[in-house]
Amino acid sequence: MQSESTTKVQQLTETAKAMVANDKGLLALDESNPTCHKRFAKYGIPQTEENRRSYRELLVTTPGLSESISGAILYDETIRQQKKDGTPFIKVIIDAGIIPGIKVDAGAKDLANHPGEKISEGLDALRTRLAEYSQMGARFAKWRAVITIGDGIPSPGCIDANAHALARYAALCQESGLVPVVEPEVLMDGEHTLARCSEVTEKVLRAVFNQLYLQRVILEGMILKANMVLPGLSCPKQDTINEVADATVQCLLRTVPAAVPGITFLSGGQSAELASERLNAMNIKFKSRSPWALSFSFARAIQQPALEIWQGKEANTHSAQQALYHRAKCNHDARRGEYNG
Fold first, then answer.
1. Full-model pTM
2. What pLDDT score does 1 carry?
3. Would the N or C end of the chain have less CB density within 10 A of its end CB?
4. CATH of 4-335, one of 3.20.20.70, 3.40.50.300, 3.40.50.2300, 3.30.70.3090
């Protein structure tokens, strides 16, 4: 008879594989309420709880979404919300054939004695929260660490602190039967070059996988959510799509063990089209020889066009859903190396 731990490992591995199967990817709906309000403010949408609920209902009820989306990352408020008719969002998602997940970090706060650097908090009572989310139906979780490139940063202290927190979170997730999505994001802000971003990303990923190993995290039962290797937004030289694809995959091949089933890229401020084009280029060139699936876990790069159309008006719901479906399908095509801008 299989032991309980063998069964758990098997379930984690199966869920992680399912999250990147059939050229699908993740839709990140895990914006905190302040972030959600910031996006609403841009389009003059009243910043109310009901509007947040309506917008999320629009997203989770989009017809055909599961053709391109394997999993949805929710926020604490979202996982507890319902459709207007009282159906819990989590039931809507599961019934659509999409795996529900949950963001569990408590946000990036200033790291003491490290000016300009952040540490993600939320490890306190995480075990209890994970147990509750698991009971609610979540099957994976996500924790984001942010690394800033600047003058003399990131420091070894910042990289190590965030890598350690990510690994402890991942171990707690697996203990609770949830697949950890491990997200060490090297931010796009700044003037740094592609080469500098590559150097920092490599350092960060080495530290993260070293800590995951020390905390006995099962690599087959996790997903890496990574930034693409990009020049800073203010860098005068913006490299080509193919240069970005090459630098990104080269960096990952040096740092990410082949046992990890998939890497889902974050969009991190890229436009919807550019994020898809870069993912497409990676899959055209590397899909056949990459040890892991190269997928997506986009928020703005899938949602933005829908939000622009919706504008907080019920009459625009259908058109907004069509835009969301279209962007999700674009990224599904990019995973096949078949995206056409």
1. 0.96
2. 58
3. N
4. 3.20.20.70
